[in-house]
Amino acid sequence: MEEETKSRFKRICVFCGSSSGKKSSYQDAAVELGKELVDRRIDLVYGGGSVGLMGLVSQAVHDGGRHVLGIIPRTLMPREITGETIGEVRAVSDMHQRKAEMARQADAFIALPGGYGTLEELLEVITWAQLGIHCKPVGLLNVEGFYNSLLCFIDKAVDEGFISPTARRIIVSAPTAKQLVKELEEYVPEYDEVTSNLVWEEVERLNYVSGIGRPDVTTHRLVFLGLCPKKTRFHMHTDE
C-alpha cells in the first residue's frame, strides 16, 4: 500500500454531472479523482447527488474513509438521490445557497465533465477568483480533451481583450486526477491592480421568489477567509 500524501487542502469541492456521460473514461476519471483525494487525505464537498459522476466520485471518497459532504436543494433530492445517501447530506433551500455553501466549505475546486450546471458552478468560482472574492485554486479535469473547446473559447477571449492574461491563469487544467491535484497544490494566485484593492464585505445576490418570475434582491454579508494572506475565509451571514 502506498504511503498517504498530506495535502495543503482539507476539503476540495468537485463539480460534475448527475449523468455518467457516454464514455467510460469519464466514469473512470471520477473514481480516480475520488481515490486521489483519499490518498492525499482530502475530504469531499459536492452537489449531494448519488447518481452519475457525482455518485461515483462521492462513493470512491466515502469507501476510502474520508468525509463526504453533499449539499443539495430540497427540490432536487428526489431526482439526484437514489437509494442510500452517501456521507453527510445537507439540504438547502435553493441553488444560490447550494453554491455559496459549497464555496464556503471548500479550499479548492475541481470540475469533472458535466453539463450546464457544472459549467455554471465552475464559471462562477472562476469569476469570483478574478474579482478577488476568493483565492482558492480552480482546476479542470480535462478527460480526453473534454474541456478543450472551453479552453479555446477562453483563449480567444484573451486574444480579443475580454479576459486578461492574469485571469486566464486562474484556471489549472490537467488530463489526470493525480497531475491536476499536484498542480493545484502548487498554485499561487495572482492579482491585478484593480482586484488587489477590492474589499468584499457586502454584495447583493438575487433570490427568486418561488412561483414568481420576479427577482427579490436581498443583501448577504460575505466574508472570505481563505488561502490568501490578505483575504478572509468564506463565511456567510444572511438577513433571514
Structure overview:
The protein is of the alpha/beta class. It is 35% helix and 22% strand. It has two domains: 11-187, Rossmann fold; 202-238. The strands form two sheets. The protein has a seven-stranded parallel β-sheet with strand order 4-3-2-1-5-6-7. Strands 8-9-10 form a three-stranded antiparallel β-sheet, covered by helices on one side. The N and C termini lie far apart (49 Å). One of its GO terms (molecular function) is hydrolase activity, hydrolyzing N-glycosyl compounds. Keywords: Cytokinin biosynthesis, Hydrolase.
Chart the SSEs and their pairings.
Layout: E1 11-15, H1 24-39, E2 43-46, H2 52-63, E3 68-73, H3 77-80, E4 88-92, H4 95-105, E5 108-111, H5 116-130, E6 138-141, H6 148-159, H7 165-168, E7 171-174, H8 177-186, E8 202-208, E9 215-223, E10 235-238
Parallel strand pairs: 1-2, 1-5, 2-3, 3-4, 5-6, 6-7
Antiparallel strand pairs: 8-9, 9-10
Helix pairs in contact: 1-2
